[in-house]
Amino acid sequence: MTDERSAADVFGLLADETRVEILRAVAVAQYELAGVGSGPAELAFSEIYEHVPVENTSKLSYHLGELVGTYLRKGDDGYSLSHAGERIVRFILSGNYERPASVGPEPVAGVCVFCGAEALEASLDHQFFRVDCTACETQVAGHPVTPAQVRRRDADDLVRSVTLRSAEDYRQIRRGLCPECGGDLSTEVVHLPGSPLPDADPFLAKSDCAACLREYNSPLTYSVAYHPASIAFHWDRGVDVTTKAVWEFHEHVREGRWTSERVADDPPAYEAVLRRGDDAVRLRLDSSATVTRTERVRRESGDLPRS
Ligand SMILES: [Zn+2]
Ligand SMILES: [Zn+2]
User: Fold this and answer.
1) Which parts of the chain are coiled coil (predicted)?
2) Cα-flanking dihedrals φ and ψ of residue 72, to 5°?
3) CB neighbour list of residue 98: distance below 8 Å, 6 or more residues apart
């Protein structure tokens, strides 16, 4: 589908208080009207007129005409939000254009993946959540946050919310879905020469979204940590890996419990091994970091080579 309109035209449509009020009124009215199991309600012209301060019906009619097609849909029973209308109005209602309060530095559990020190601190930097090692002064994790996510949360709650969102993002990324825009991701396994990552896991899963240009990088073992085989393996051992933040994985790589290696060249294949106690889960990946095979291994049976 091609669209001839420029982004400036599309956003220019919103440079008008009445139109923003119309979108807000539609969202609020839909929220109040929608019953469980019903789709989003369409709002009749007269209902919108009641809720929007506009001089007369012909002015309202003009503004609605400008919004329909981009921000509103017109159906048999009235108006509802389009995808762009949804995104814009949620953005406005959540106040996510405001500046978030500053947070931290707040100590968090875990060790530095680069130097092994237990000296991690979380903070907000230019509206970006980051975890830094205070011993070697290196950033060890980062995740975008929204002002709505920061508002009314103390530092502990914010860390928990980032952990949850990042675990959910990893699960979507692993399935080739861009968490930001829903576009297709292309992923490749890369080995960065001179990478500061520990030798135990020298590979990165590198994903790019051609639609919105977001990039996502993670050590190969982290990219499989939220795979169902890993979730089940850890769950059986009393660990809910889906509630763990990526910086809590660092110690596993540092101490060589989580490892990755290239096991074939043509076509390239990789193996990630996540060990816990005497057991391990082994995941085979192709060059697009897709898991092609999983198996659980009991180390005492002797068939898991220690790396
Ligand atoms: Zn460090
Ligand atoms: Zn995207």
Assistant:
1) none
2) -130, 150
3) 147
CA distance 82 to 9: 17
Any idea which ligand is nearest the CA of 209?
2
pLDDT at residue 2, rounded to an integer: 46
Within 8 A by CB and 6+ apart from 127, the residues are: 99, 100, 144, 145, 147
Cα(233)–Cα(237) distance, integer angstroms: 7
Query: Is residue 217 domain-resident?
Result: no
Any idea what the CATH number is for the domain that residue 46 is in?
1.10.10.10
Report the number of distinct structural domains present in the chain: 2
Name residue 293's amino acid: R
Domain end (from 61, 93, 125): 93
Confidence of residue 130 (pLDDT cuts 50, 70, 90): very high
What are the pLDDT digits (tens) for 63-100?
999 999 999 999 998 999 999 999 999 999 988 888 87
The CA 140 to ligand 1 mean position distance, Å, reads: 8
94 three-state secondary structure: coil
Ligand 2: distance of its center to the CA of 277 in Å? 38
Q: Which residues fall within 8 angstroms of residue 273, CB to CB, at 6 or more apart?
A: 258, 259, 260, 280, 281, 282, 283, 297, 304, 307
Question: Rounded to whole angstroms, how far apart are CA atoms 251 and 282?
Answer: 18
Domain with 72, as residue range(s), is 7-93
> Is there a domain that residue 208 lies in?
no
CA 293 to centroid of ligand 2, rounded, Å: 27
Ligand closest to 139 (CA) is 1
In a domain, 74, yes or no: yes
Ligand 1 centroid to residue 130 C-alpha, Å: 14
Gap from CA of 168 to ligand 1 centroid (Å): 26
Decide which of 93, 117, 140 is a domain's last residue: 93
Pull the structure tokens for residue 69. Answer: 């097609």
The two three-digit tokens of residue 22, written as one number: 């119309």
In-domain check, residue 77:
yes
